[in-house]
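Schema walk-through. Below, the input block comes first and the output block second. Nothing else is stored per chain. Lengths vary across the set, and this one has 406 residues.
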Amino acid sequence: MKRFVKKSLALLCGLALALTLAGCSMPAESKNYIVNMTSSGMPAPASATEVLARIRPAVVDVMSYTETGTSAGSGVIIGSAEEDGEYFIVTNHHVIDGGKTFTVDVLSIDGEEEFTTAYDAALIGSSMKRDIAVLSIRPPEGTELSAVSFIEDSDSVKVGTEVFAIGNPLGILGGTVTHGIVSATKRAVNVGEIGTMTLMQTDASINGGNSGGGLFDTEGNLIGIINSGYESYNGQNVEGLNFAIPANDAQYAARALIETHEEQGGTVTQYGYVAGDAETNITFSTATLYTDSALRERETALIAAATGTEGPLYAAWGNSAKAVVAVTVNGTRYDFTERGGGSYSLSERANSVMADVRAGDAVRIEYRNVLSRGVGGFGGFGLTYNYLDGETQEVSLTASQYIYEP
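--- output ---
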């Protein structure tokens, strides 16, 4: 079973925190922001101890407060706004998803002493497709925080590269460091409802709460943002199969989210977005259904449902699940009725197709209804079977720009 490395904590329901930003307030007018980010950092200090002393304060604990409780993850300070005193923190979309308010704990190291300072944070923007979100904090005037340096090109990272993973495992052990290597550089991994992502694999120990934390090389350069791992696979226990979003991809998404957001009077008036990321309002699964009402033969079908209550899919389908026959994107048709493929390959291919859809693309979905037939049983107890309706219908949409709003 694959899981996001996010830790949910049981707290009182209905917990609500007022969002206040520390330090000076935002200017009254709306403006766009450009973030300073650095690459390839300082020359490597002489020891791992010195490297970690430098980079650990740039990895923070993230708390996301929902209407029913809270969840914990990690984040990385990636830079600050020009002459504005605002620091930006990259984390995972699944860490902040559903959160209404956020706090971060920032680590400080003074000789042998370590302590953390809590700051209220604002959501700048988030991309579900890329599993990247950005928060911001405003320390008191004159406070300087550590920020990471991105590796110049994460595509240059090789298998066998030594790495440190830093984060907040279990949601209670902030600043924890684990050690390992890069096990693979470009794994196509199906990550929950996000779909297929190209990720960096590591054997560094990762646990719930590490989501959004940093994966660093031995020089202290950020090479990835931790986001997922396997606990089990096909019934087998799994160890050391963990994944991170490559730094190139994380930096691209974070920069876009920051530069497209707007603030006014200390409040975000426009959440950031990654131009071209599509909102298609569809989710996929699979089911084994009878091929017709005679209930003689069964096959695995790709099942689709509309998410949300807006757009052409919900208008055509409502809350009903449909069996997908084919998806056509900008004139290219992808068939999903061929036999012999397993349920995993069906949903994986569908997610892969939709992952390539960009805002503005024309999408047509051919589908069949899923109907039910009751069959009488002994003693009056009947059974209900689902089967495919013979008629093929279609619905068309233009993919819209994805902008996450909590």
